[in-house]
Design a protein that fits this description.
Blueprint (H helix, E strand, L loop, with lengths): L2 H20 L8 H15 L28 E4 L2 E4 L3 H14 L6 H22 L4 H9 L2 H4 L7 H15 L7 H15 L5 H15 L4 H30 L5 H11 L4 H17 L5 H19 L7 H21 L8 H4 L10 H4 L7 H15 L20 H13 L8 H45 L4 E4 L4 H4 L8 E4 L3 H14 L3 E6 L15 H9 L3 E8 L5 E7 L1
Parallel strand pairs: 3-4, 3-5
Antiparallel strand pairs: 1-2, 5-7, 6-7
Length: 570
């Protein structure tokens, strides 16, 4: 076994240790992840025969006024609840969970990320004839491939499948028909996990059609073959979406689009897309001024390298790189207190691509690396179309599928610095900056994983408290709590209230059904243990007392969310 494969296996072991032994497994990075676990439990509970989500508290809320998951995470159709997320990831994960417990949930993400690293290594080896251990380490530990390899989310699975399809398509100049068809087939399967991968497929075939130097008829034939494979695997998904949700895109895209853009003007759409692009590329979470400064430095670096007459100013280019490095160190030092999203601020080593950009766009040099560059460019442009840039994330999860391409381009530039328009005495200095960028990127990923560990422990503490309290009924005014408590969603009955009238109606149902105790959890923190009445909205407190319930016990969770739990008895 050579050193490269051993290194990849070692990185996979790191993922496994974090996933199986270190990170808490019964709580999740975000509410989206937790919702998928509710979906998994529901599938197993009904022997994989029911897609709609069972509402444990329905016997006390037949009008569904207090369903504990908020819009747009779910939607209701024919008095049945469905999560909007694609079912494929939850469906596959449910079997691993059934046989392995909570550890099984993390098997698909860690395997997907590990195999993606292997494909990145093979693609780079094929294109550059270099076996690079450095590439493997950066791909595995210095990019969000690391983070999303140890959290329960489908992005890493979509990344593996889409990049595998891309790799097959560009593997050789001959492009035999069967491999091209399989490439299209895998591209289609990847869309079962993440709809935005569609733009990766479009970017791939568009880049190939416009810039590959093959015979025109041969290109048309190859596009027909890959599209046939794509159509073959995507048709069942379209049929499923239309049958279940009434549209071809499925609930995820249609619900989000209707909420964000329905009835809005074109100007609003364009303005929103500009903001989302800014977030996806440059949002450090530190401050707007830091984001804009990083954007400015990136633009200057790009501008200096795209114009041939300016490329001779080596000292200025290196100065901009060094200044960007200092900014990256500053961002990394503060990102524990923020939520870093942007592609370039999360992985600043990608900026080295700008140094090679003049070669990447030369028409006479079209080969795999050039096609890879244009595919990346088209993919970024197409991703302006989907609604939203995401909520909780560490690094741009919507751009995760493009990371393999950008890592390869980065190392192509790194190993070809001697062929660029650089003074030889500066090359080692630029390489040192690149290595420091990689170290910063690694530290950002480690901070993200540590934050996840810390936040999960806090949530786990709250779930444990809820689990240990005897009452089966939980009322909350905290919208995210029922999702975050996915591991006990079917062991308790959650109800979410949004107003005093909601609480009034719910307690009225409780009295009719003879409910004699419940837990009320609120995000309001106690001012002091001697003044616990002020931890609950006074109007809520009056309504609870009106229906004859009195406070029997109080539990304070005063870490991050400062939640308070109260047991009320009749």
């Amino acid at each position: 076994m050579n050193k490269s494969i051993t290194t990849i296996i070692f990185i996979g072991i790191i993922y496994s240790i974090l996933s199986f032994f270190i990170l808490p497994k019964q709580v999740f990075f975000s509410g989206d992840n937790a919702s998928k676990f509710i979906q998994i439990q529901n599938l197993i509970k009904h022997n994989w025969k029911k897609l709609h989500i069972e509402y444990p508290g329905e016997y006390l809320d037949q009008e569904h006024n207090h369903f504990p998951i908020r819009v747009p995470t779910f939607y209701e159709k024919n008095h049945k609840f469905y999560f909007i997320f694609p079912l494929s990831f939850s469906f596959l994960s449910s079997f691993f969970y059934y046989f392995m417990g909570f550890s099984g949930l993390y098997l698909l993400p860690l395997i997907s990320s590990t195999l993606t690293i292997y494909l990145i290594f093979k693609f780079f080896q094929l294109s550059n004839k270099i076996d690079s251990l450095f590439l493997i380490v950066v791909a595995g530990l210095c990019s969000p491939i690391f983070f999303y390899g140890v959290v329960f989310w489908e992005h890493s699975v979509a990344m593996l499948l889409s990049f595998w399809a891309f790799f097959l398509f560009f593997k050789s100049q001959e492009r035999d028909s069967l491999r091209i068809f399989i490439s299209g087939l895998i591209f289609g399967i990847s869309i079962w996990f993440r709809l935005e991968v569609l733009f990766f497929f479009i970017a791939t075939i568009l880049s190939y059609f416009l810039f590959d130097n093959s015979n025109y008829n041969k290109k048309i034939l190859n596009l027909i073959i890959i599209s046939s494979g794509f159509a073959f695997s995507i048709f069942p998904l379209l049929y499923f979406n239309y049958t279940v949700f009434g549209n071809f895109t499925g609930a995820h895209a249609s619900v989000n689009f209707s909420l964000l853009y329905e009835g809005k003007s074109i100007l609003y759409f364009v303005n929103t897309k500009i903001k989302e692009t800014y977030h996806l590329l440059f949002d450090s979470g530190v401050s707007r001024n830091v984001n804009l400064t990083f954007l400015f430095l990136s633009f200057v670096l790009f501008f200096l390298n795209i114009i041939s007459k300016l490329r001779k100013f080596n000292k200025i280019i290196i100065g901009i790189l060094a200044l960007t490095l200092l900014y990256s160190i500053y961002i990394a030092s503060l990102c524990y207190f923020s939520r870093i999203i942007g592609l370039l601020v999360t992985s600043p080593f990608i900026l080295i691509i700008f140094l090679d950009i003049s070669n990447l766009i030369k028409k006479q040099r079209y080969h795999r690396i050039n096609l890879l560059f244009f595919t990346s460019l088209f993919y970024l442009l197409f991703l302006l179309t989907p609604p939203g840039f995401g909520d909780k994330q560490w690094g741009p999860r919507f751009l995760l599928c493009i990371y393999p391409l950008l890592i390869i381009l980065s190392f192509h530039a790194y190993y070809n610095l001697k062929y660029l328009n650089f003074n030889p005495k500066y090359i080692n200095f630029v390489k040192s900056i690149f290595i420091l960028f990689c170290i910063i990127s690694f530290s950002i990923q480690c901070i993200g994983i540590y934050k996840t560990f810390h936040d999960k422990n806090i949530t786990f503490k709250e779930i444990t408290a809820l689990k240990n309290l005897n009452s089966q009924i939980i009322i909350t005014d905290v919208w995210w709590l029922p999702q975050e408590a996915a591991s006990i969603f079917y062991k308790k009955c959650f109800f979410w209230i949004r107003s005093s009238q909601h609480l009034h109606n719910l307690l009225s149902n409780f009295k009719k059904k003879g409910v004699d105790n419940f837990i009320f959890t609120t995000s309001l923190a106690p001012t002091s243990k001697e003044n616990i009445a002020r931890t609950l909205d006074f109007n809520y407190y009056k309504i609870i007392r009106k229906y004859g319930y009195f406070r029997n016990k109080a539990v304070f969770i005063s870490d991050k969310f400062e939640n308070s739990l109260f047991i009320y008895k009749n």
